[in-house]
Isoprenyl transferase
Amino acid sequence: MIPRHIGIIMDGNGRWAERRGLPRKEGYAAGLAALRKVLGRAAERGVETVTVYAFSTENFARPEEEIRAIVKVADAFDRSYDGDMRVSYMGDIYAFGDEFAEGVESVEARTAGNPGLRLNIAFGYGGRADIVNAAKRAADKGDFTEEDFAANLSSAGLPPLDLVIRSGGEKRLSGFMLYEAAYAELWFTDALWPDFDGDALDEAIASFEGRERKFGA
Ligand code: FPP
């Protein structure tokens, strides 16, 4: 079975640029180009939703120039996107200023009725913070079940997370969709994100299809 919802930790953009003697910001532009290819293949394969980790709460500790470079790539994407995907964000988009938030709101509104793949962008996002916020909201409402709780996460309404892909060689979640990833299959590759492509996605999907998912049973 094809995964309905794939999460991607797009790691290795900075290293990709450094290895070419380029400024790290070039790595983010190349990362977006790779993402476009991967999304095209995901749509062809019948994946419903792709959530990408584009800016974690830990990334706020990076040098100002690098933060600006990532925000610029995302903002340019939001303002120019005119394809058939439905684009949404999760995370504290207001931490990046009014202009950025306006671009996000615009792409979300423009694409809300689109029939294609759902691209969900985690930006200013951290899985622990998301769980804590969901717990506060759920507690306000009183007694709750796992389902009630999950409805308070910022992924509410998305299909269950089936597969998490991480490029760049590290083998950890780094705060990405911690609650949702409980029973997701994990796929790690040493490829740096700008080198990841449609064929690499197919390889990850083939591995997913070969696994027996027992959900603890
Ligand atoms: C981690 O790799 C990746 C990021 C901090 C950001 C990735 C963002 C993009 C590719 C642009 C996203 C586009 C949209 C539309 C949201 P790293 O660069 O920290 O890798 P390193 O480990 O090599 O330093």
Notes: Residues 10-15, 27-28, 31-32, 35, 54, 59, 70, 73-74, 77, 121, 168 surround farnesyl diphosphate (CB under 6 Å). The two ends are 19 Å apart (CA to CA). The chain has seven helices and six strands. The mean pLDDT is 97.
